[in-house]
Amino acid sequence: MSTDAATTRRPGVVLVGARGFGRHHRANIDRLVAAGACTLTAVVDPAIGSATDGGVPVVPDVAAATLLGPVDAVVVAAPIAAHLPLALAALEAGADVLLEKPPVTTRAALTTLLAASRRTGRVVQVGFQSLGSDAIAAFRDGSLVGRVRSAAAVGTWTRDQAYWDRSGWAGRRRVGAVEVLDGVVANPLAHAVATALALVGCRRAEDVARVEVELFRANAIEGDDTSTVRVTTASGLEATAALTLCGPSEVPPTVRVRGTDGAAVLGYTEDVVTLDGATRRLGRTDLLENLLAHRSRGDALLVPLESTGAFVEVLEAVRAVEPVQIDHPWVTWTGDGPGRRPLVRDVEAVVDRAAEERALFSEVGAPWAHTARDEVLHELVVDGVRVAEVLDGAGTIPTSSPRPYVHPVRTSGGTVVSAHHPADHDWHCGVGFAIPDVDGVNCWGGRTYVRGEGYVWRQDHGDVTVPHAELHGPTLAQEIVWRGPDRSVVLHEDRSLAWRAVDGGWELTWSSSFRTPGDGIVRLGGPGSNGRMGAGYGGFFWRFPPCTDVSVRTAAHDGEDDVHGSVAPWVEWSAVFDGGPATIRLEALDHRDPWFVRAAEYPAIGSALAWSEPALVRPGIPLVRSFRATIRD
Description:
about 625 residues, globular, single chain, alpha+beta, 12 helices
């Protein structure tokens, strides 16, 4: 090829991810191809089952695309967990990259990608389309409101169950070893956060002085769907975002900008600025066009990778905080099946007030903004390794029945084998005692099973506290009080925990001795004793995190169906967790209660205190349940 031909050759583009939001990128690339700005060399998408997609070859990866034609720019519109490896592969192939948001979700991943960009001499542009708006420069140069002092993003959207069911990573905070943090801040309304940051000139990591977040969820997801963010910049400015996916209707998101000479509102999806009652539409530069112009004539990138450092700092804050369930009284549901979605009561007014005051939800009095966090009461250390923590349960919302529990429980090798507040059952809390019916008080959490009615929401939730504890080496003694919703004491418990090293792991011995608070008998029950056959949960309970290759057995039974409801001296759970394979054996030391097992629906084992009949605690006669758990890698 001659030098003139090489100079005039149209750049070749590869699209990685042609479904979902990738369809928008495909339409944009087709537009640019028609305009003679580029060619589409290939498409990479394992979901496409044909050799071509709209006449364009489908290949397994970018390396294969280089065999078909030029690969100058790669557009990555793949699942979040694949962003880093796909972007790295494109850079190593010698291509520049347009990477969908969020580019990555951790500071470490951003550092890795920046290093690869420098090493290969190629660039990464991040797909925050709103930052291509001419409005950003107009606000920054002071021509609209003077010097910008604050920017408050407002996003009130709706998302139904179909949205969360669209892929295996939707609504997840972690997929395997990768933190995807899929939620309202990191994904659907990420543009709101990024735009607010850009408007106050907070682009790089070093521009950030402080990040505060409050994350909540009404949906049964791991991630957040209703959240507030407040970023204080190194120069003392504020960028905030009040966001929800649980509004009554979808409203175009905006950013309220205040400056030294006035205030304006930017509708960033439409590049519309409202100032002094007048509205005008500004232009926008397409980010792929900008990337190609950077290649051909050296135009400055509008959203270079390093300029998303501040956004990644926000995600680091999101990563450090677990979303809290919005309590039942404040959520109503509408629709059915895939169209079912939650509505958080008065969320539009709460979002509006938070934006106006540049405040977090708890600071504007949102009644569902439960901000208490679990306090670590004690750490369990075996051979110098912290293997578990005893929490007070303060981070548990009222209808999940706050109580002390042990979490995270780890193997000696560091694999976490307990879970708390999972999306499917917020009231499942690590390892501990929970009882659905303590003389009519729900100390388990969630709906109450009522004979003849099924599961219903009732105002009957209790809580459990630890007024006194003593630690003597590897032994912990706790005085525990169980209370009803009226704060009356319904049960006393003396709990002891002891831990030690054993061959291949460590051992936890747990004993709970229950006493009546007065002269009457206290009945400890649950769904099983209240008429639901086979659902005798309640008592000692261990919720596991997501795991695979599950094997659950006793000496005489194997598998969920056979072990569930069986009576045996021990039950053993073996599985592959995120950190690797582990085995937990739970022994009953002083009783013969049936074992409760769930594996297909969710991963858990427990001892059924009231499988079919209530357990009775009589005055002066403690009811004792003791267990020994052995945890091995």
